[in-house]
Design goal:
The protein is an all-alpha fold and 65 residues long. The chain is built from three helices and no strands. α1 runs antiparallel to α3. The radius of gyration is 12 Å and the shape is elongated. The N and C termini lie far apart (25 Å).
Length: 65
């Protein structure tokens, strides 16, 4: 799991959908009370950006319909 933090408009369909799924996995992990420390330490997720990033990905997905 990772956040690419690339403009969603530049992502191919596969990466756009993949990162969208991963944002849901991050949220599920947080809701279960599990730690994201390893992902944070390795720079794979910006916890403060999960919701904003998800919204950007979802918006781009809707535009591509």
């Amino acid at each position: 799991m990772r956040q690419w933090m690339v403009d969603p408009k530049l992502l191919c369909r596969k990466h756009l959908l993949g990162e969208h799924v991963e944002s849901h996995m991050f949220i599920g992990t947080i809701k279960k009370g599990k730690s994201l420390k390893g992902y944070i330490d390795k720079g794979l997720v910006e916890v403060h950006n999960i919701k904003k990033r998800h919204e950007a990905l979802a918006k781009e997905m809707k535009c591509r319909r």
